[in-house]
Write a structure and sequence with these properties.
Shape: globular
Strand content: 5-15%
Bound molecules: pyridoxal-5'-phosphate
Structural class: alpha/beta
Distance between the termini: 57 Å
Strand order of the largest sheet: 2-8-7-6-5-3-4
CATH architecture of the largest domain: 3-Layer(aba) Sandwich
Helix content: 25-40%
Largest sheet: 7 strands, mixed
């Protein structure tokens, strides 16, 4: 046999699968999970719901997941939205799948997907996998969007999908509603126009006074707001993400989704979890306080820190960030080596986990500096 096996698409050869290292260390602050698991009562309720679903697992699940769409609409109307009806809601196995479906429906050969770097590292993968051209504009030095430049880039590239994480991952930066509105208008000004996806995976963590893009759904037909149960909702293991948008957009996604993509077990789990929403979201305020304290502490130590509306903080800058990341791992604390060169990202954990992080960081930086000065004097 000649040539490479297996016969992988040319552009996929040699590519590493996406994913942060899953290392077994005591303090896991690398993938922005909620550190607080469900209470025994909530866990028992989820187990009961899954048990009830189990007796009819010989049947396919509700393909349109009607009950779940209604429950998600109710939740969204309590979380920054209003007048969101079930026909405006779509869900899938994580918001990653929701966004891939958006690219399958609205991207494709000859079309462009656009975002502004630094941005979520999965977006270019959705574009690659759907043969959509990927264009990345740039954020300003403080990670905000230069609105004029952003609008001009949209008009120039005429993307069919614009991806805007807000709060942004990895920087934590939220977008003001004017920015979202301006980009929605720009993306509606050419033929056939583009959809503007505001990825609010961290929406529930936004600071007081930061509005959700859900408020703009009534104004812009081409706006899509995605959310997830993986972060604030403390349900990353269940794989449930969703969006709110014009019903015509939800209908379009139905064309590309796989049949019965949301299992009966997933639907039962999500519905039961939504009945416990106040409890599962109950630690969000604590995490926001811990986040703000982490930003203040890091600045006191002399680090550069990006303002954050999310449950993580991007800080730097390090001449050798990998050495710092490694030093923390050696002390049992796993954070994320991501973002622009020289920066690191730490997810907000419990108070105890954050104390471990602070100590490990101080020790690591001291050690790295000692080594540098030893080398300097040698
Ligand atoms: C974590 C994250 C998601 C959510 O992913 P799920 O597939 O829902 O777990 C989406 N967007 C961004 C920017 C994220 O960081």
């Amino acid at each position: 046999m000649s040539g490479a096996f297996p016969p992988l698409r040319e552009e996929l050869r040699g590519i590493e699968p996406y994913g942060a290292p899953q290392l077994d260390v005591p303090v896991q602050l690398n993938v922005n999970e909620n550190p607080y698991g469900p209470s025994p009562e909530a866990a028992a309720d989820i187990a009961r719901a899954v048990g009830e679903a189990a007796v009819s697992l010989n049947r396919y699940p509700d393909r349109e997941f009607v009950a779940l769409r209604a429950a998600l609409a109710t939740y969204l109307n309590s979380s920054g939205g209003s007048a969101i009806v079930p026909e405006m809601v779509w869900a899938a196995n994580g918001s990653n799948e929701v966004m891939l479906q958006l690219l399958q429906a609205f991207g494709g050969p000859g079309r462009v997907a656009l975002s502004f770097a630094p941005t979520y590292s999965m977006y270019p993968e959705y574009a690659r996998d759907t043969l959509t051209e990927w264009v990345a504009g740039h954020r300003a030095e403080d990670f905000s969007l230069d609105l004029d430049a952003a609008g001009d880039l949209v008009l120039e590239k005429q993307p069919s999908v614009v991806l805007l994480p807000s709060p942004n991952n990895p920087t934590g930066t939220a977008l003001p509603p004017e920015a979202v509105s301006m980009l929605c208008e720009a993306a509606a000004s050419y033929e056939p126009g583009g959809v503007v996806v505001v990825d609010e995976a961290y929406g529930e963590f936004r600071r007081a006074g930061t509005p959700s893009a859900l408020e703009l759904l009534a104004v812009h037909r081409n706006l899509v707001v995605t959310r997830t149960m993986s972060k604030a909702f403390a349900l990353a293991g269940a794989r449930v993400g969703y969006l709110a948008a014009d019903p015509a957009i939800c209908d379009a996604i139905r064309v590309v989704r796989l049949p019965y993509h949301l299992s009966a077990v997933t639907q039962a789990t999500a519905l039961a979890a939504l009945r416990h929403a106040p409890e599962l979201l109950g630690r969000v305020d604590d995490l926001r306080v811990e986040r703000d304290a982490t930003v203040v502490w890091l600045r006191e130590q002399g680090f550069e820190v990006a303002d954050s509306d999310a449950n993580f903080v991007l800080f730097g800058r390090f001449a050798d960030r990998h050495a710092v990341w490694r030093g923390l791992v050696d002390r049992g604390v796993l954070i994320r080596e991501t973002g622009p060169d020289g920066w690191l990202r730490v997810s907000i954990g419990t108070a105890g986990e954050m104390a471990a992080f602070r100590q490990a960081l101080l020790e690591t930086v001291r050690q790295t500096t000692d080594q540098t000065s030893t080398r300097d004097t040698a």
